[in-house]
Please model this.
Amino acid sequence: MLTLEQWLLIAIIVVTLIIIVFDLLRADLTAILVLAVLPMTGIVTVQETFSGFSRSVVITIIGLFIITQALEDTGVVQWIADRMREMGGGSEVRLILLFMAVGAGLSLIMNNVAAGAVLLPATVQVGRESNVPPSKLLIPLSFGTLVGGMATYFTTANIILSSILRDQGQQPLGMLDFLPTGGLIVMASLIFMVLIGRRLLPSRQSVGQTASPYLLSRRLTELYQLEDQLWEIRVCPDSPLVGISLENSKIGEELGLTVVAIWRGHQAILTPSPREVIQASDYLVVLGWEENVDRMAGWGVEIGRPNGRNGRDQNYFVDLAEVIIPPRSNVLGKSLAELQFRNKYHLTGVALWREGLSFRNDVGNIHLEPGDALLMVGRPAHIAELTKERDYLVLQSTHTARPPLPQKAGWALAITLLVLVASIVEVIPTAEAMMMGVAAMALTGCISLDEAYRGISWRVIFLIAGMLPLSIAMINSGLAAQIGQAIVTMIAPYGPLALIAGLFIVTVLVTQVIGGQVAALLIGPIAVTAALHSGVNAQAAAVAVAIACSAAFLTPIAHPVNILMMGPGNYTPKDFWLVGAGMTVVTFVTLLAGMQLIWHIA
Model:
């Protein structure tokens, strides 16, 4: 029989899950509400409720964010991406293997989302240069970062499971507890993707399709053998061009210019028809020689944006760029108009792609969501400035931002390797090793403390610290023990391996809906308790559940790195299901093999 406290705790958990699943409130705000409500039940003390902020799991994750940021700022990760560009030419199979393997390798020491975000532009560029659609490469890249996270301690779910073991008086997990089993899964996943998975991947162009920056510029270059000759021209209200169709405007006949696009308010008219009528305040993007563009000065137009003119030698050539909204961007939920994007960056958002759908009207008024892909137009210098903003991910490789501290790359790499070695040999606790690494990064100038603080995803920190008391409450109230006992009663007759299999399947299903971080916090205490009741190695059960939390293959919402790939790959949710189902089966079978071979569970 369940006690009143246990029923109350179940109610809190159910309400929390409903809020998260249906996205009624932000996940981190939901966690804060849990912090506010849980002490009132008496199941946990106030000290236990807020202990999440001082636990080693949170300290370790904070350190991971900062070290990841230092590796980016010093150019270590960009160097890897550049080497991938050099190695990338070749067949589709070679590219899939390359990007999936490098994604897995980076995830051993970096946050998964950061690894995916850094490699995304390189993947898109190399694929285009090799005539391989981005849709053939980005799911493998995403899944590579996920399976790489299975083989390392430095994954949020893995760190959480280690903390749960400690809470129940068990030996916590270390790097070498994940590497053997996770390494087997990485190898099996690479083989599956090369032999089977790649055949299930869609073959689509990027989000912009024929209007994407790359394809548009490539098509124009092929047609006209011209480069750097796109210009932005504003039609003044008193211009004789107002009310005239393109075919009657004589822009092409007299000046030899081609109008390739029109930006009208928040509407994009790409490759306009000859009968399109020019309106006042239209921005025409024209292709042609600079001297011919200059001749339009007497036609009642302004060359370039009026607020961007600095003199006669000003270059008004404009370019196009694809910009992705990362999952943890601070601009989520806001529109370009609310952000005053055009005034701040002097760039215009002219089209938006979301989950395979194209929006070309009122782009500036659409509230941004994770994974949105925007087509931007503006001067190359302004696009280059945007690459320095962490809230936007610019895919166009010609505008890749130079890392601010490249001279510190050696120090950053050495410090990261020392932290990794210290964690593997366990000479000091991992949380302490991470903080020592952060201190070393700051002292050697690899990162400033202000940049370090900005590199931390505080949403994730508050989510984990706020939800940790639920795990403590499940243990204190005995709810985890009762649910664990029920699981043992149902599965124990089939053996220890069946228990591991059952825990994995349940965790995978929960992860697809609420994500691996929350799944680890809720399933972890139950799994460890069930293992202890049945006499199964609790560390092995924790590893299985942690790996299941990273098996976020079936839905794009299961993990932020999947969302990041949606726009550039022009994916639909079905695409993740088709390839992810096989990846889940491969992970499951390989995990069971690892449990037998490495953990000796039969």
Q: What stands out?
A: Strands lie at 230-235, 258-264, 267-270, 283-287, 301-303, 319-324, 348-354, 357-359, 373-378, 393-394. The longest helix spans residues 175-200.
